Amino acid sequence: MIPFNEIIQVVIFIIGLIIAAPLFGGYISKLLSGEKNILTPVFGKVESLIYKSAGINPSEEMDWKKYTFSILIFSFTGIILLTVIQLIQSILPLNPQKLSNVEFTLAVNTAISFVTNTNWQSYAGETSLSYFVQMIGLTVQNFVSAATGIAVLLALTRGLVTRQGNSLGNFWVDLVRSTLYLLVPLSAIFAIVLVSQGVVQSFSSYKEITTLEGYKQIIPLGPAASQIAIKQLGTNGGGFFNTNSAFPFENPTPLTNFLQMFSILLIPASLVFTFGKLIGSKKQAWIIFFVMMIVLVLGLIVSTYSEYSTNNIFHTSGLMEGKETRIGILNSVLWSTATTAASNGSVNAMHSSLSPLAGLVAMFNIQLGEIIFGGVGSGLYGMLLFILITVFISGLMIGRTPEYLGKKIDAFEIKWAIVAILLPNTVILLFSALALRTNAGLSSLANSGPHGFSEILYAFSSAAGNNGSAFAGLNANTVFYNLMMGVGMLIGRFGVIIPCMAIAGNLVKKNITPASKGTLQTDNFLFALLLLGVIFIVGALTFFPALSLGPLLEHLLMNNGITF
Amino acid sequence: MDTREKRKLFDRKIISQAIVDSFIKINPKLLLKNPVIFLVAIGAMLTSALFVINWINGNFSSFNFQIIIWLWFTVLFANFAEAIAEGRGKAQSENLRKQRTQTVARKLTNNKEEKVSAVDLRMGDLVICETGDLIPADGEVVDGIASVDESAITGESAPVIRESGGDRNAVTGGTKVISDKIIIKITANPGDTYLDRMISLVESAKRKKTPNEIALSILLSGLSIIFLLVVVTFRIFFEYDQAGSLSQSNNVSIPILVSLLVCLIPTTIGGLLSAIGISGMDRLLSHNVIAMSGRAVEAAGDIDVLLLDKTGTITLGNRMATEFIPASGFSERYLADAAQLASLADETPEGRSIVILAKEKFDIRARNIHDLNAHFVPFSAQSQMSGVDILSLNNSPERIIRKGSIDAIKKYLASDSSENINLITDLNFSQMIGVDIALAGGTPLLVTENKKVLGVVQLKDVVKGGINERFAQLRKMGIKTVMITGDNPLTATAIAAEAGVDSFIAQAKPEDKLRTIREEQSLGRMVGMIGDGTNDAPALAQADVGIAMNSGTQAAREAGNMIDLDSNPTKLIEVVEIGKQLLMTRGSLTTFSIANDVAKYFAIIPAIATTLFATKNGTGPLSALNIMGLASPQSAILSAVIFNAIIIILLIPLALKGVKYRPEGAAEILKRNITIYGLGGLIVPFVGIKIIDIVLTSLRLV
Questions:
Q1: Angle at Cα B656 formed by Cα B7 and Cα B215, nearest 5°?
Q2: Does the predicted interface ipTM exceed a cut of 0.95?
Q3: What is A367-403 written as a DSSP string?
Q4: Contact assignment for B666 to A437 by CB distance below 8 Å
Q5: pLDDT tens digit string along B37-60?
Q6: Does A127 contact B at CB distance below 8 Å?
Q7: B42-81 CB burial, b ≥16 within 10 A, e <16
Q8: pLDDT tens, residue by residue, B311-337
Q9: For a FRET experiment, which of A172, A257, B395, B432 has its CA 20 to 30 Å from that of B452?
């Protein structure tokens, strides 16, 4: 029933990732550590010019407070700037469509959304934002928000490998290097490939044409390819056009579809091996990669199974509603799984129209905390928090004060790891409950019953997980949702970054205990199993009740012939 | 004397006291120390209040009533677990405490004796203890020598010598002087003595949480907050769904939501956490080890390196003669005879061992000294020699026999004859043996008669019996043992090999101990140190776990964070075990507690949602989650709550005894505990809840 060539594509996708991630990951560690590489002759001068003009001392070492402060200053300045240019876009250049200024709450929501690497879009790109805002505002944030994620990961890694130190590195250097050596060149190459396949890259105004049927149609254009490349590579996911990668100008061919899916997971997966290189253990990296891959594949299997099962209402399988016929079912499901596992959020099919269980997988992927590859940098530092919890519980079970990579894990780390896991979950559950109890929340719903509930639950999961994909069916451009989602995204981002940095700041001061026979091994399959257990149990125990009242109930009702 | 073997896990007296205590502990102030159980109590209180209001309004719900009963039982069971652990700990220490409070001390003020109660003594006070007196408090002997019966705390019946100055001046309160008279300077205020500190570790009110316990409490509180959120929002989500469903139900009532919450929050580990900590200290006490803090016991479980002083720890402390090696031209018997004669005036254990060896080997008996007409040269620390001058009838020396270390004999021979010096300095014969002996772990003594070397007496350090197996056990635990000795490297090598330590530091000076500990620590290792002498004090203080022998000096005992009343160095193995058991029990029960939740979800969620979108037959689609096939929604919820409560009671013995520890690698331990408590924790509640469901239904309770 599943077309054979689609299965082949999935297999190539997974094998490709297994091959590419270790190779590229090792290379990234070289790029980021400031070692001389092939890009140094090209960007070395630019790098030092940036430092000079911004008054940055690249050799300054920052403790966790200074590092965190720099992240916050940088991010909040970004939010303010991005808000302001949206509010005055009508007087700014590159606005051939003469789009008017953006409404305040929408502008704030969009600004937070792009700075937090969420790319939740309450707006429709082609009818709301000028080319200037998209390029100077959104695309710039697509780069630097991803680079910020990498910086936090680097700081946390330094916290783990430094023996009794204080410094976590220099945020500005990490930011500049990640952008300059990794994201910019890769995006440039990818953008050119996309253009070659037919993705638009143009400054001209929208074209009005007459179709064969004689109707007038407006064809939106814009500098799309350059933004789409980074939207995928930086796990941003914010489409240039409203329908995201389902739109032919954004995702024209099977090749672009495959490459875009691949680029969603490429950097998050590779960073696992970058981490392995930095801590000096490839084995540790493989175990983390293995855990992520298992969850991804399991989700894919459930989604595929659900999509291809016979629907009791239509007595057929493989329903195409909300999917692109040129993309097909398996590629839609693979995308939906990958984009929610990584906190990307770009879509090539409408998640609201997925079968309930496939929708459940998408939602659960986000609710696990965006750690299954996850966002660029953020996925791995989120995963490291779960590793700390796992190490703690299993460390106790072997009768030793828990330690990870030789660093003792005590109350301080556990406290902040719990805070980082608790905060996004609070946003998802509490904000959803609030939306369900207010008219402002309910009036945006297009559907009722469990499906309506899923729409709201998905939206806040997407915000808290900094994913940015939408279940659709929910009119999110209201003051209530713009503000609630904005707060949710901020908590989902900085509610994890600050704890991570505090943990890094505490770990860096500790000594490294050499491994002995009595040490808990974190580089074997037993540990992988434990980590999987902790991720699933924490995720399932927190969201199983909600999910059973949402997609699960919908699935069971659908089998009884009831839909919403 | 050894009472610990006979102690039963549950003593009737302790149980009845614990039952009373479980009610006293409902006091919110005490409950607040345990956030998880506190949350249960709040839920129980809320449900009870609602139940009473409804009852007054004429709505008696037997289902709600049963729920309330089991919620309170959950709180009581948790209290009971703590109370019983406390009771056992107190019983253990009560005897010791009783003794001390009744003791009357003879306090010395301005050379005048005055009778005061032991509890009135302060640091620095001087007291006199004579034959038959109980020593009123911990202190050190400042004057006199006495033999002391320490069996009250060590269980060892042989009396020990305590004397002023030197390494044996510390006395413990509660022990008894059985001969002579000593003056003791009190070194601890009442309430501050070791015993008091230990008692405070087994009383929950005074007990300080250990670092790992704090970390775990944070994790458990975090989980509880998450579940509180889950349950509160669940009601809202449910009511939204229900609004679209035709059938309505009151299945999200407060008692049911509280039941869901109580089942999900980690009550099992939350309820037993304090009992685990207290019983760990209690087990330590039953091994005759006094800990200054719970932190130290946990740290013991983390030790990577253990430093041991050789003398008195690995070896018996005295070197013993093991062999006579004659020089050419002399028989072994002749050498033995001379050696015995020379040692008669040597009262050191070494000297005595020569006398004994000669007797054992050749049946040469110690002669009557007066018959010999001899002049004895006693052993002195300065000369390092002893000997005898046997006089002829005209009182001129006939046989001049000397015995001593190589260096001492060299000096002695060098005093006149040059011929003999060559013999020694050329190292042709004696020194060859000397080296050989040293290789075998001995130190040679030379015996001379009339300035002729007769041969060598081989002295050997005798390694304590069974120590090899103990070190092997430590190795299995992943602990590296390091022996510290002042011996030369050759001797040290031999002893290290015989005892089975992993490495050694030879020719070590006292400051080397401190340096070694610092070095290991800077490499990130946790270091344990066992010592008894005053020169060990800095090292004991520097080590992460310092165990002082009770026989050691006051300085050593103050510096360490544990005192072994039995003065048995290999006791560390038990201490490590208890430390590891503490963590393992906590970790395993946490895993068990969390794994349990899966089954409870499958019991309660379908029970609550059974009427949601119900079709004609009255059950909704989510009933599909009722994979246990529980009889009715009410019985499902009640079964889950009951299971949740009684599992606490069922696990009390485990909390008190601790999860079994075997010295093996981390991977094996983890595998076993994951299988038992992780996998077991997943499966057991499915079975348990089903059984309770069957019982409840057959008794028609729901």
A1: 150
A2: no
A3: HTTSTTTTSTTHHHHHHHHHHHHHHHHHHHHTTS--E
A4: no
A5: 999 999 999 999 999 999 999 888
A6: no
A7: ebbbbbbebbeeeeeeeeebebbebbbbbbbbbbbbbbbb
A8: 767 776 667 888 888 877 788 888 888
A9: B395
